[in-house]
Amino acid sequence: MTTHTSGQFSGKIAVITGAAGTIGLAVAEHLASLGADIALLDLQKDKLEDAATKVRQYGSTVRPYVCDVTDAQCVNSTTEQVVSDFGKIDFLFNNAGFQGAFAPIQDYPEEDFNRVIQINVCGAFHVLQAVARQMVAQKSGAIVNTASMAGVQGPPNMAAYGASKFAIVGLTQTASKDLAPHNIRVNAISPAFMGPGPMWDMQVEKQAKAKTQYFSTDPETVAKQMIGSVPMRRYGNISEIPGVVSFLLSDAASYMTGVNLPIAGGIL
Ligand SMILES: NC(=O)c1ccc[n+]([C@@H]2O[C@H](COP(=O)([O-])OP(=O)(O)OC[C@H]3O[C@@H](n4cnc5c(N)ncnc54)[C@H](O)[C@@H]3O)[C@@H](O)[C@H]2O)c1
């Protein structure tokens, strides 16, 4: 593995939430490979330690912080700790998220609805606000929120997730306007149908079990139906996400803010 001591993002400090998860870790490794130092935030302590070990291999300074994004106080104190440890925050990848149950709206469990909104919307807001306050004080920063194509077209059986990701697109647009005067850009990414792996399998199985007219009850057929709805006729690989995030964080995107970029094989 190559270590980078003077890359494109050398001297930059990035905060990543959901950093122990698949996309968060992939982005952390990529930003570290470009020279950024990284604060990794996640709920899951053990997975977070493993992620930190992996990201350190790129030669960057990496610190793990156990933080529940639904707890505003925890987010605020963790952000203060990150600034105390690293001195500033240049980049935020606001990415922690949860899919919740798959069921038609008339059967959708209220508990799941509330949980998904708490994590995906309130959590993203807490992190965005805490980090934005620091960036406003610094008069610079770049933020990428993880939305989803479920926040562009409401998918069947995903009332909570769809609503939460539409909210992320709205939050991105409003934050981009509120923070533009402070030299802070805010954009979003919208992945869809990323695989292979547990997330892909889980989505396929849950849609099959939801038993609606939109998908077969046979998971193998569901997988074919999903891929058939993608113009590029394949699912996306997780490795196709980090480069888009680093582009949006970089000066190459210096005139882009409030944008939601699909990473979705042609689904618009
Ligand atoms: N994987 C996909 O196909 C896909 C597609 C579109 C959007 N997304 C979005 O990408 C983001 C990352 O998802 P992923 O696929 O890496 O999933 P993942 O489950 O691998 O990672 C999510 C991470 O978020 C963390 N997390 C959950 N609740 C938290 C909380 N309250 N506080 C702090 N951390 C918390 C989890 O511990 C986990 O490590 C999510 O916002 C998800 O909605 C994923």
Automatic annotation (TrEMBL):
Top-level taxon of origin: Bacteria
Looking at the record, the residues that make up the Ketoreductase domain are 12-192
Pfam families per record: adh_short (PF00106)
Cited PROSITE patterns: ADH_SHORT
A molecular-function term among this protein's GO annotations? oxidoreductase activity, acting on the CH-OH group of donors, NAD or NADP as acceptor
Q: Which family does it belong to?
A: Belongs to the short-chain dehydrogenases/reductases (SDR) family.
Specify the protein name. Oxidoreductase
